[in-house]
Amino acid sequence: MFENRPLRSTALFLLVLLCLASGFTHPARAGIEEDARAALSELYRLVPGTEALAKKAKGVLVFPNIVKAGLLIGGEYGEGVLFEKGAAAGRYNIVSASYGLQIGAEAYSLALFFMTDEALAYLDKSGGFELGVDAGFAVADVGKGGQLTTSNVQDPIMAFVYGQAGLMAGISIEGSKITRLED
Length: 183
Hints:
It contains 4 helices and 6 strands, in the order H-H-H-E-E-H-E-E-E-E.
């Protein structure tokens, strides 16, 4: 019974850390749309060309605050809003879990630009999808000063990770499951 005590302690620590770091977020939390709009505006400021990309996209899913924490066992959680033609079209969450050599906590923003009708329709297929498993996507590196133009976008989904804060090495969004929340 006590053989897995370190593992249980680690899992409990992670749960407490995620709850504290996320501020006990709830899907119906007031202000999520405003937070998502502010995060999208920040991306437009940080990466020239993203505002034009958003105008060509069929939809933009913005997670303004994804919290990631880990101590051997890791996880991340965030809530976001899908915008279609500038209007809020639904709320979503992103969740993932991992196991391995990891320690720390951080928060970041994520914006997914759905460039085709098929990619956007796939978002809600089968109750959600996993990035990097179900749909083809490309991650744009905000830290590199390259010029983004709508003509050099080839993938059906473009992902932008930005606004990282915290103490955890690396960010991986592959394997993160995105699910629509009921309104």
